Every structure is written in C-alpha cells, then in structure tokens.
Amino acid sequence: TKSNFIIGNGKDFIAKNYRGYSDLQVNEGTTLSIEGKGKVILESGMIDNADFDQSQSAIDVEDYGRLEIRSESMSIHNKRDDRCNAGGVFTVNSGAIDIDLSKTFVEEKVSFGIFADAAGENTEAKVKITKVKINADEGINISTYFRDGIPLSEYDLQGAGIYLQAPSLKAKTSSILESKNGSVNVDAQSFGYYSFGNVNSHIISKDKNVVILGRLKPGILLSITTKKNQRSLYILKGSSVISTVEDIATIYDETFVDGGSFSLTSPTSIFKNKISAIEGGTIKLESLTSFGASLDGDPANPIMVADTNSSIKGVFGRSVIDGTI
Question: Most buried of 47, 48, 109, 322 (most Cβ within 10 A)?
C-alpha cells in the first residue's frame, strides 16, 4: 500500500502531535510519500518523557515500512513550553527513510535526533537492512535535549544526536547524511554520534563543515564501551574513522584510539586536547599547511601518547605543539 501527499507551490505540509504519538507512522510494508516545493513541518511533544518509549517520535518507520519526502525544507521541533521533548526520527527492523530537500533539514527540541536499529529476528537467508538517507542541499542541523535531573545510563539513547546499531550479523543499518552547499551540525545533550555493530554510515558536507558535539557523552563513539572522561573521538578495536576535511579540522576534546584506527587529512588541523593510541591503535594525521596541538594548563603534560604496540604518525606543514610528546 502506498499513500501520496502532494504539497502545492508556496504551501506547507504540517503535522502536530503533543500527546506522545508519532506525526508520521509507517509500518508493515506500507509506503508514505510526501512531495512538493513547500515545507514539511512536524511539531511533536509529550506530557512527560521520563519513561517514554523511543518509538514515541515525530517519525516512526518500522517493519519494512518506507517514508519518502521530496520538498524544499523540513523541520521537527517542539513549540510548546508545557510539553516535554519527544524523539525525532526513529526506524527499526528493515524500515527505510529517504528524505531529499532543496534547502535545509532541522531538528530542535527533540529528545534524540536519529535512531536506526536493524533489530528483530531474522529467519531469512538475506541480510535485513534498515536505512536512513537525508540529503539537504543547504545544511543539516540537529540539536537534542532530553531533560535535566535524570542521570543518563552508559549507552542511553536519550539526548543522543545520531544513534545507529545493528547487533546481529544478519542485519545491517545504513545511514547517509549529506549536504551539497551547507554544513552538517549535531549538538547533542548526550552522544553526538553513536555506532555499534554492522553499521555503514556516511556524513558528508561537500562545501562546508561537519561538526559533531556531545555534551555529556563522547562526541563520537564507535563500539560498545565508554569511559568517564569526555572525548571527541573514542575508537575501539575493529572500528575505524577516516576523515577528509577541505578547510580547517578542529578537535576540541581528547582523541582516544584503543585498538582501532583514525585517519585525518586536512590542510589545517587544530587539536585542543590529548591525542592517545593504545592496545595497537593507530593514528595517522596529514596536515599539509599547518598543525597545532595544545593542552590547557601545564605545558609539560604529554599531548601525544602511544604505548609500545601503537603508533601516531603525521605529515605536517608548519607545526605548533604546546606540550610534550
């Protein structure tokens, strides 16, 4: 079954729900298509989100459901001060979300930004795939806030920006966030980006910046363990991050590679905290114009640390390192 909604020129598609139900829910193999030259606006919230289920989100796509949106721009937000934030985009068990926008994609005042999980039992021979694809020519902005006064557990989804997982070898989660002319910005109360299992993910800004911030958890976490210390990058064995930045790459918190690998290529790189590799971890940094690394406080503190089985290698232009190696 497929349902189509057409937005007229200069018109908007608006859906609202402030009682914890989804604005758009697609499941059981059905398809919902929204297209036109106007805006897609989803207002979402709930009376109390202390114990809410993650499927209580503005968008809920499950069990081979498919959501297709082609429009000018899209926003998901909570406009009511008397309502708690609900989730943003949620899809599990071979759900598929495909959003293509000529301007911007914005999520603000949501409990989490994007959650995709290839969950569910798989008795079929083929691998089940859960997909999220968002292309917004002029930028993607995700800002999350769960609530104060509730401690976040070790891998809690609440407050996360992007949260992807596929714990089974017979399942896969695929995610693409891309902007041709704008930046991709994630400002999250919890994890900026979390990935576990059989996940294939791309975050692409062809002309501007990719900025991922985790306020109470690491900015980027790939694997199944976390630490108490704040880290911009935390990469474990079997995981790798390969980044290419066309202008300036700025890393604010610690880069910590525990058995995994991290590669960064950019004209200019600025590290404002420690760079560490342990347990066979490898770090490769190529900054052809300039490279800067500094630690606030005592310049005698080591800024680059690698144990005997690990390595930190670099090709640097003009370098300024304020700290020991």
Answer: 109
